[in-house]
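Possible regression after last week's pipeline update?

I re-ran a chain I had predicted before the update to compare outputs. Posting the input and the new output here so someone can diff against the archived version. Not blocking, just want to make sure nothing changed silently.
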Amino acid sequence: MKLFYSPNACSLAPHIVLREIGIPFELVKVDLQQHLTTSGEDFYQLNSKGQVPLLQLDDGQLLTEGAIISQFLVDQAKRDDLLPKINTLPRYQVLAWMNFIASEIHKAYSPFFHESYGEQTKALFTEILIQHYAWIDQQLTGQLYLTGNDLSIADIYLFVVTRWAGFIGLELTHFKYLTSFMQRVANRQTVLDAIMAETE
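New output (post-update):
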């Protein structure tokens, strides 16, 4: 199994998931500017969207979209702690968070990583992010993670995209529950190992 990634991208989320479930995998770094892998392979030939993450299974089949890859991995590993069983409400509560993070948090960072967006647009999305994080901070009151006191794939996804706040100068430390959450996830050995592996 191969995970195609780019450092500090959203591909870090399924990377962490792979380490949480403990199955063997190979990391393949992608230069998103040149759209080449470290071996010189044209990444567009593997994923015509040109985006990471991309998961390549041992039989050659491919899967894209980080939120879906994370779900697939934990289901294959039967890790009900990271994503509860199908046809149970807790599963769909985790998936509701996954959808919210993908549509409202992840996408709100896009203008900061594209030169075509002006400062007025970035200011608007800064306010949107702050509003969303204020709400998330409230949801974390009295619990360790988004859906309670157990880590899920939604927590991993939120951690990864929220790290981008530091890259764009977005101050979030006044959200005390969110700050504690970020520190809690950052201290997990799987997270430390994944970040270290992507900086080598």
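Follow-up from reviewer: compared with the archived run. The two ends are 20 Å apart (CA to CA). Marking as no regression found.
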